[in-house]
Amino acid sequence: MQLYDYSFASGNLEPWNGLASETCDFCRDIAADVAEIGQSGNRTLNEPTSIVTSRVWMIEPAKWFGADLIVREAPSTQVDATGATVATDDGGEFRLALALSWADGWKVDEVDVLDPDEAPKW
Question: CA triplet 54, 91, 39: central angle to 5 degrees?
């Protein structure tokens, strides 16, 4: 979650893209959002996203893993180069259902964003 916050705050997508698998639509969507904000000269200010609960399990030994997280995203403010507010977001609490793989490093293969009370589809 720190990398998510860092990407929006800094506009630096190198670490994010290094972790994202080519199959991860969520990862591509976040990268596009970060790039759009950065190209406009804006940046996002917010408190760190926190993990409320987490559960991780192995799907295939040493290769595939699942993670179920409830996260709390703080309200955020998008500011332009002068510091003027151009957008705000209320944040909220979300469930993230992740598919992860390990092959000479971690990759995020898929992320489903759900309501906290909604059960993952697996």
Answer: 110
pLDDT in tens, 100-121: 999 889 999 999 999 999 987 7
Residues 6+ apart with CB under 8 A from 72: 49, 50, 52, 91, 92, 93
The enclosing domain of 60 has a CATH number of 3.10.450.50
Tell me the C-alpha to C-alpha distance, in Å, between residue 10 and each of 40, 44, 53, 114: 13, 8, 26, 26
User: How many structural domains is the chain composed of?
Assistant: 1
Among candidate residues 71, 68, 72, the one with its CA nearest the CA of residue 120: 68
Specify the pTM: 0.88
What is the CB neighbour count within 10 angstroms for residue 36? Answer: 10
